[in-house]
């Protein structure tokens, strides 16, 4: 039986992804630019690019991996948490959500927070980061949906 969505909350993950792309592009441009003009003196430029790739993997991991970007609540009270990477939807039963709280974002981002949904079995599911301005209203709204 298909039950309609009564509430949908989007955490504006596109802005988070745009910031990640910016932080990914800057080091590559800097390393390639310095190598082009002869200012980067390394014997193996592949090692410098490998270090940049490790940095990029860490940025991408902290920006979007394992973080839900949208919550849908259906008429039966189930929470559907939508993830980008890995692409999946986690369904929480109406009585499985124990708490909803705000948590600080990553240290390399400025003025961001995330929502953490704690389940009764001890899992902590975290959202993508978003601006602090919306924090109190979102957490209040999500707490009202907890049964």
TrEMBL record:
Q: Does the keyword Transmembrane helix apply?
A: yes
Q: Is Membrane given among the entry's keywords? A: yes
**Ranges that cross the membrane:** 17-37, 46-68
**What's in the keyword line of the UniProt record?**
Membrane, Transmembrane, Transmembrane helix
The protein's name is: DUF2244 domain-containing protein
Natural source organism: Inmirania thermothiophila
In the record, what lineage is assigned to the organism producing the protein?
Answer: Bacteria, Pseudomonadati, Pseudomonadota, Gammaproteobacteria, Chromatiales
């Amino acid at each position: 039986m298909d039950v309609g969505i009564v509430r949908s909350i989007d955490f504006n993950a596109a802005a988070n992804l745009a910031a990640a792309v910016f932080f990914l592009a800057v080091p590559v441009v800097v390393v390639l630019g310095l190598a082009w003009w002869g200012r980067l003196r390394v014997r193996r430029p592949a090692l410098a690019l490998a270090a940049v790739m490790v940095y990029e993997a860490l940025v991408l991991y902290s920006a979007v991996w394992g973080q839900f970007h949208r919550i849908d609540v259906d008429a039966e009270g189930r929470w559907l948490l939508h993830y980008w990477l890995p692409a999946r939807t986690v369904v929480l039963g109406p009585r499985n959500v124990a708490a909803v709280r705000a948590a600080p974002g990553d240290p390399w981002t400025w003025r961001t927070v995330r929502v953490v949904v704690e389940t009764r079995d001890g899992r902590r599911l975290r959202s993508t980061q978003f601006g602090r301005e919306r924090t109190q209203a979102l957490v209040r709204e999500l707490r009202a949906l907890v049964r």
